[in-house]
Structure formats: structure tokens, C-alpha cells
Amino acid sequence: MGGSITVKRGGPGWRAMEGKTAGLLGLLLVATALAGCAGGEGTNGSDGFSVSEPKDPVTEPFVFKATVSADQYKWDMGDGRSPQEGKTVEYVYGFTDGTVKVTLTATTDGVAEKFPRTLTLGTGLNAKPSFGLGVDTDWAVAGEEVRFQGTGTDADGDPLLFAWHCVFKTELAKAGPDHHGDGGGVPFAGGETSMIPVQVAEGGLPAPDRVVEGDFCANVKGDGHYSEDAVVGGSFEKPGLYRVYVLARDPKSESVSGFYDLVVSTPEDKPEPAFSERFEGTFTVGANGTAQGVGGTADPEGTFDHAAHSFTLEIPANDLYVNVTFDSTNPLSAVSTSVYKGNSVVAAGGAQVAVEDPTKLAAGSYRVEVTLNAGVQVEYTIELSGTYDMDPLKVFEPPH
């Protein structure tokens, strides 16, 4: 049988009253209930348990006593936290206004009977909280700690509660050399959208309230109930695509959920964000000032080595800068520099070349060529630099 208790402010303490009634019959019922609960204690044996409310529900416990006989007693306190056990339990809700549904499950000889009752504190009103989800990286490495944070605000000042969960979605493989991805989400993970906003925290997250031992995805769920652990941390044991969920609520509201799709790779598959490379060599002018290529020795025909200086972009890049300098007291003229991918020219210029179009900088092999129309025994230096696009969605794809 279901019932309700309304806890209202009245004089120095609070009183527990049975339900909401109207008219003379209702007044008589309330008077009867109050007469039977000296010291602020209300009972309703037909509903399976009695409740004693404290003067200060934020810091002091309610006392729940089962009024039915059973072998086992289990209490769902209605606020999402871990259940309580025992014929009598004391419980602190930590708020003054709101409504919770308390359910006693009494079990005898394997047969369970439930006794639900609504407990209304103060006004019973509750301002809806708002929530967000933060993660300290969008590209994790197996074995290294990752942190997740549930954030939120509550106009009533109620505690914010979080429950965490994780699922392994798929293995990943490095994408082909011309793969760019489309970023901004995992295109191969489905079209779902998180119900709460998600943000990658560039400045990092606070120390975890709870560090998950072993594999984060296997063990973060714990007992599956809510707690005030807003920041959780741990490591993933193997590479792949994971979806980390947070369920968020205050003790009086329905939960909302959010999730983040996290790519986890091996350390070898995640380069540093900035890259650089340096080549050095000497020009030797051929007959009649024939143009020479970097790293090549002129032959009588004036050809030069097209593969002298090659480099590799491990993953797609945002930009690439080439700077060529010479150590020579002789006058130099007509310096030209070209960057190739295969037989296609990516960019060309003089002693300095900039490539700032990411669509031209897919992962793969490249070469740089420099020519000089005059000079004798000219030493040169080629410096390459740039930044990788660290969006893992442009690097990985599901295995074929």
C-alpha cells in the first residue's frame, strides 16, 4: 500500500502528518496522526514503517522503523544513493524542501513485499539543477590517467549527485594516408547527442574524488548508485573507442545523462603536437652554372636527386613551414623551394614556404626540393616545422 507523509515547519520542530486531506474528516485524521507522534514522530503501521523527522534535516537524520515482521529489510531512500539495510535506519537527506519516494522492501522466506511512501519536506518544491560534463583530454593513452568531471548548479543549494558508467564500443585502426575525418564527434559511433553539454578542459581537471582501480571502463560503475564523487579518474587498459556516461541529479529530481566518446590509443600512436625536422648539405655547381638540387651532386646532364630529402607526417597536420638558409660568402640567386606529396606539388616558393591549408597535409610521405641558380660549394640548412591536428577522429577509424 502506498502512502505519504508531509513534513512541514511548525514551531520549534517539524511535524509529520499523514497525507493531504480536506474537510472535517481530513482535520480529524491529521489531529489523530499528530496526537500519536510525540516528539515529532509519525507512524503509519499499514504502510509498513514509521518515520521520525529531525529538527534540522540538513544535518540530522530521519529515523525509519519497519512496522512489519520480515527476515530482511532493504530501504530505497528515494534520492538515488546506495540503499540502506536493517529494521531501523537513520538517514540524512541534506536538504529542506522537496519530495522523495521512500520504499521499504521486506523479504520473508524469499518473498518480497514493497511498502512505498512519499515523503514531502518543507514546501515540497524543487528548483531543477543544471549539469555539464568535462573531460581532460579527447585522446587518451592506454595506461595513463584520464579524469572526468560532473559539474552543475542548484538554486536550492542541494548536493549534486553523480553516477558513472562506461562501455567499450569498438577497436580502432589508424586511418589511411588520405583520411581527414570530419571531427567534432565520432562519426562512426552513431548519431546520439549528449543531453548535457560536454567540454574538454584545456587547463586540466581537479584531483579525483575517486580513483578507479584497475581498468576504468570495467570498474567505474561501482555499485551503480549516486554519490557526490564529481571527479573520477583512472586508466584504460587497452586501446579503442569508449563511451563514458554520467547520470546527474540532486536528491529530489529525476536524473539527466550525458556521455563522451573517448579515443584511447597506444603511446606510439600519439605523437607530440609540434613536429620539426632539419636537413643539411652542400650544393656543388655544375658546368655553366647548372641549377642544382639539394642533396644531389650535379651530373653532366644537370639533373638532381628528387628523393634527397623526404619526411613523413605521422598524422594529419594543421600547418607546415619550410625555411632554407645558406652559409656562403658568394652571391646567391633564384632560390626556389617545393614541397611534394608523391608527384603533386603541395606548395612552392622561395627560401620560405608556408602550407596552412590542413586539407593538403594528410598523413603520409613528403619530400622537399630546393634549387639554386648560382653558387659554389654552398652549404645549406632546411628546417621544417609545424603542428599536428590532434583530433583523434582524423587519425583513427574502425578496423575494416
Descriptive account of the structure:
A 6-stranded mixed sheet has the order 2-1-10-9-6-7. The relative contact order is 0.13. The protein has 3 domains: 3-121, Immunoglobulin-like, CATH 2.60.40.10; 130-269, Immunoglobulin-like (Sandwich), CATH 2.60.40.1080; 274-389, Sandwich (Jelly Rolls), CATH 2.60.120.380. Strand 1 (3-10) and strand 2 form a beta hairpin. The protein has 2 helices and 30 strands. It has 400 residues and is mostly beta strands. The chain starts with a strand and ends with a strand.
Layout of helices and strands, plus pairs?
Layout (H helix, E strand, L loop, with lengths): L2 E8 L2 E6 L4 H13 L5 E2 L6 E4 L9 E5 L5 E5 L7 E2 L2 E4 L6 E11 L2 E11 L8 E6 L3 E3 L4 E8 L7 E10 L2 E2 L23 E3 L9 E6 H4 L11 E5 L4 E10 L6 E10 L8 E10 L8 E2 L16 E4 L3 E11 L8 E6 L2 E6 L2 E4 L8 E9 L5 E11 L7 E2 L3
Parallel strand pairs: 1-10, 11-16, 12-20, 17-18
Antiparallel strand pairs: 1-2, 3-4, 4-5, 5-8, 6-7, 6-9, 9-10, 11-13, 13-18, 14-19, 15-30, 19-20, 21-29, 22-28, 23-28, 24-27, 24-29, 25-26, 25-28
Please supply descriptive tags for the structure shown above.
400 residues; mainly beta; Immunoglobulin-like; Jelly Rolls; 3 domains; six-stranded mixed sheet; five-stranded mixed sheet; 30 strands; elongated
Identify the strand order in the major beta sheet. Answer: 2-1-10-9-6-7
Please work out how many helical segments DSSP would assign.
2
CATH fold node name of the largest domain: Immunoglobulin-like
Class by alpha and beta content? mainly beta
Arithmetic mean of pLDDT: 79
Which runs of at least 5 residues are low in confidence (pLDDT < 50)? Answer: 4-45, 179-190, 287-291, 294-307
What's the number of extended β-strand segments? 30
Q: How would you describe the oligomerization state of the chains in this entry?
A: single chain
Tell me the number of structural domains: 3
Cα separation of the termini: 56 Å
- Share of residues in strands: over 45%
Q: Could you estimate the helical fraction of the residues in percent?
A: under 10%
Query: Mind telling me the CATH class of the largest domain?
Result: Mainly Beta
Radius of gyration in whole Å, from Cα? 35 Å
Largest sheet composition: 6 strands, mixed
What is the global morphology?
Answer: elongated
CATH architecture grouping of the largest domain: Sandwich
